[in-house]
């Protein structure tokens, strides 16, 4: 059964950024429990493995003020199925721009048709994180730039280590 006091925040988190963590912590303050769902999503061709992404998200959320109310799991199913499996009743989505809003309204409309009992809420990214996107972080890293303004030292180390093993 779905519980509206349990939120589900899905994403690929490739890698998890300070922007993601901002939304996660703010959502965890709103819900009794927040499940962060790390999606397989091969269409995005993730740089990090699912296991690496789950491990990094767990490591990062453990440090958040509301970390005790957050769990992390991987999923390779329809979002609606993952939400049901987690017992959540609300999907949380972060918005950075008008472009995000257009995509997210389409996604929430599809979710509503598949599972009308699941609500979607949008959290506007904090101003300092509105330009942070995982794809941009990876590109900066590939080109030798400093990614420390966007990710923790541990996440940066994982990215840079993988780039050394698998140069692009």
Provide the residue-averaged pLDDT. 93
Label the structural class: alpha/beta
Major sheet: arrangement of strands:
3-2-1-4-5
Topology pattern, helix = H, strand = E: EHEHEHEHEHH
Q: Low-confidence parts lasting 5 or more residues at pLDDT below 50?
A: none
Helix content: 40-55%
Number of separate strands:
5
- Principal-axes geometry comes out as globular
Cα separation of the termini? 45 Å
Task: Describe this protein's structure.
By secondary structure, the protein is an alpha/beta fold. It contains six helices and five strands, in the order βαβαβαβαβαα. It has helices at residues 18-30, 50-61, 79-86, 98-114, 134-142, 153-165; strands spanning 3-11, 33-39, 70-75, 88-95, 119-124. Strands 3-2-1-4-5 form a five-stranded parallel β-sheet, with helices on both faces. α4 (98-114) links the parallel β4 (88-95) and β5. It is globular. The protein starts with a strand and ends with a helix.
